[in-house]
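[agent] plan:
  1. take the single chain provided in the ticket
  2. run structure prediction with default settings
  3. attach structure tokens to the ticket
  4. add a short note for the reviewer (M.T.)
[agent] executing step 1
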Amino acid sequence: MPPAEPTSSPRARREANRVLAIGRAPVEHGFAHLKNWRILTKLRTDPARATQLLRALLVLTNLEVNR
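[agent] step 2 finished; step 3 output follows
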């Protein structure tokens, strides 16, 4: 059996990877900011409230970064 042919060209793959990287970068930056906030290691609350808190912190961080 011959090897399978690639479904997309190298150019299409590079473009797809570029688009994914553009979308992934802000998320990775957000997690990096959260890891630097030591206060979150002492967070003792309901997970639902923690999610709301983290969302609020990310919004504030994005506002500050984009200022």
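[agent] step 4 note for reviewer: The helical segments are 10-36, 47-65.
[agent] ticket updated
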